[in-house]
């Protein structure tokens, strides 16, 4: 009899570590902020549990990021959703955000940590690189992000990791990992099965009916 049991990576720990919590949804904003966005966000958050929200505005003045952040912060707090600002630790500090997401050219974890403090959530883009992920972990990142797993029209991407990078990461580290890039409720299963702690999603929610898209993810993640 074959006693090799296929274990869910979430419960397969052999080193006495806590099981990882179930995979959760991490919403990424559209690149441009429109005045109707707070209502769309509320509709999305009413539809299912969301762990985190990243304000990712591109090519706009700092003042616009600060205005948008100030408008969204109380909504996120009311739904108990972590508020992460993309790119800018300085503006995250000014907004009193819960954390910042740093790409490879957005500054160091150490600088962000000294600005934002011990409790801040600092995430780092690691593309398809085990090396970058280990560096980010050693630098004190609170999560590492791998992507883009699927083609996306939200951003030009040049890296295409295999889902196995998520399984590898969950085997060697307790630091949460985020999967990003072209993720929809239809294509997310291999990433969840590989051990993603969070699915970071933009287009599949905001380019569709946000409430219905979040409901579809919620069914998958329950
Ligand atoms: C959760 C998450 N993962 C990856 C990214 C990409 O960050 P970066 O490489 O800095 O690219 P931009 O998003 O700044 O265009 C992200 N924002 N969030
Ligand atoms: C912002 C971002 N970063 C990526 C990376 O690979 O690092 S992919 C991506 C786009 C995420 O939006 P969507 O869910 O619409 O594909
Ligand atoms: Mg960036």
TrEMBL record:
Drop me one GO molecular function for this one. magnesium ion binding
Top EC group: transferase
Superkingdom of the organism of origin = Bacteria
Q: Name one GO cellular component term.
A: cytoplasm
Instruction: Provide the cofactor note recorded for this chain's UniProt entry.
Output: Binds 1 Mg(2+) ion per subunit.
**Parts forming coiled coils:** none
Q: Which parts of the sequence belong to the Thiamine phosphate synthase/TenI domain?
A: 25-205
Pfam families assigned: TMP-TENI
What does this protein need as cofactor?
Mg(2+)
List UniProt keywords, sorted A-Z.
Magnesium, Metal-binding, Thiamine biosynthesis, Transferase
Pathway membership: Cofactor biosynthesis; thiamine diphosphate biosynthesis; thiamine phosphate from 4-amino-2-methyl-5-diphosphomethylpyrimidine and 4-methyl-5-(2-phosphoethyl)-thiazole: step 1/1
Annotated residues that bind Mg(2+) are located at 87, 106
For the ligand (2-[(2R,5Z)-2-carboxy-4-methylthiazol-5(2H)-ylidene]ethyl phosphate), the binding residues are: 152-154, 182
Question: Which EC number(s) does UniProt give?
Answer: 2.5.1.3
The processes (GO biological process) annotated in the record are: thiamine biosynthetic process; thiamine diphosphate biosynthetic process
Reaction(s) catalysed (UniProt annotation): 2-[(2R,5Z)-2-carboxy-4-methylthiazol-5(2H)-ylidene]ethyl phosphate + 4-amino-2-methyl-5-(diphosphooxymethyl)pyrimidine + 2 H(+) = thiamine phosphate + CO2 + diphosphate; 4-methyl-5-(2-phosphooxyethyl)-thiazole + 4-amino-2-methyl-5-(diphosphooxymethyl)pyrimidine + H(+) = thiamine phosphate + diphosphate; 2-(2-carboxy-4-methylthiazol-5-yl)ethyl phosphate + 4-amino-2-methyl-5-(diphosphooxymethyl)pyrimidine + 2 H(+) = thiamine phosphate + CO2 + diphosphate
Query: Which positions in this protein are listed as binding 4-amino-2-methyl-5-(diphosphooxymethyl)pyrimidine?
Result: 54-58, 86, 125, 155
Matches recorded under HAMAP family: TMP_synthase (MF_00097)
Family note: Belongs to the thiamine-phosphate synthase family.
Q: What does this protein do?
A: Condenses 4-methyl-5-(beta-hydroxyethyl)thiazole monophosphate (THZ-P) and 2-methyl-4-amino-5-hydroxymethyl pyrimidine pyrophosphate (HMP-PP) to form thiamine monophosphate (TMP).
Know the name of this protein? Thiamine-phosphate synthase
Species of origin: Sphingosinicella microcystinivorans
* Organism placement in taxonomy: Bacteria, Pseudomonadati, Pseudomonadota, Alphaproteobacteria, Sphingomonadales
């Amino acid at each position: 009899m074959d006693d090799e049991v296929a274990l869910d990576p979430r419960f397969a720990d052999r080193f006495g570590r806590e099981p990882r919590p179930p995979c959760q949804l991490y919403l990424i904003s559209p690149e441009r902020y429109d005045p109707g966005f707070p209502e769309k966000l509320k509709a999305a958050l009413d539809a299912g549990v969301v762990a985190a929200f990243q304000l990712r505005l591109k090519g706009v003045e700092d003042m616009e990021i600060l205005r948008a952040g100030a408008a969204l912060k109380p909504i996120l707090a009311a739904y108990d959703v972590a508020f992460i600002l993309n790119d800018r630790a300085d503006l995250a500090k000014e907004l009193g955000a819960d954390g910042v997401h740093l790409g490879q050219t957005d500054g160091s974890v150490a600088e962000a940590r000294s600005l934002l403090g011990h409790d801040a959530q600092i995430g780092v883009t690691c593309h398809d690189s085990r090396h970058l992920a280990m560096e980010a972990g050693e630098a004190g990142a609170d999560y590492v992000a791998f992507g883009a797993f699927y083609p996306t029209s939200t951003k030009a991407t040049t890296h295409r990791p295999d889902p196995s990078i998520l399984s590898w990461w969950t085997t060697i580290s307790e630091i949460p990992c985020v999967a990003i890039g072209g993720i929809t409720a239809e294509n997310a299963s291999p990433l969840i099965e590989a051990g993603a702690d969070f699915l970071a999603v933009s287009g599949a929610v905001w380019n569709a009916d946000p409430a219905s898209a979040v409901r579809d993810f919620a069914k998958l993640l329950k």
